[in-house]
Structure formats: structure tokens, C-alpha cells
Amino acid sequence: MQDIFERMQKIISEQFSVDAETVTEDTSFEEDLGADSVDLVELVMAMEDEFKIGEVREEELAALSTVGDCVNFLTKKLEK
């Protein structure tokens, strides 16, 4: 799970131009990073590429509001 978190930190720091060290599991995409729907779609596409998880469905995306949500989601996806 730590590996997933570190890879997510890297993706988020590149996409949102923030220092990876400032990204925590509690970081909110909308509140802390100012992400809009386009930013979130681009983030999910980067996650799909990085983790080779296939396409994330819209209802799954709606549940991802923090970095921790993404880490938990990816952990479950990768266990399958």
C-alpha cells in the first residue's frame, strides 16, 4: 500500500504542480488541490496507465475525493 501511495504522490505532484511531500492520504482533490472535473478525469487516466487497472467507471470515480480514497481503491483493484 505504501508503494501505491508513493506512486500516487508522484502522479499528483506532476499533474497539479505541487511538491510530492505535501501530498498526504487526507489531501482532498477539490479542496486542497483545486481540482475540477477535467483534472479528475486526467488524474484517473494517469492512474489507469500507471497501475494498468483498465477503465475506471464513473460511479467509482465519484467515490474518490481524497488521495487515501484512491489508494484504497487501487489496493482493492490490484488484489483482484
Uncertain parts: none
Over all CA atoms, what is the radius of gyration? 11 Å
**Helical stretch tally:** 4
Strand content: under 5%
Largest sheet: none
Distance between the termini: 15 Å
What form results from the Cα inertia axes? Answer: globular
What is the residue-averaged pLDDT? 94
If you had to describe this structure to a student in words, what would you say it looks like?
The chain has helices at 2-16, 37-51, 58-62, 67-79. With 80 residues, the protein is mostly helical. The radius of gyration is 11 Å and the shape is globular. The model has no long low-confidence stretch (mean pLDDT 94). The chain has 4 helices and no strands.
Layout of secondary structure:
Elements: H1 2-16, H2 37-51, H3 58-62, H4 67-79
Helix pairs in contact: 1-2, 1-4
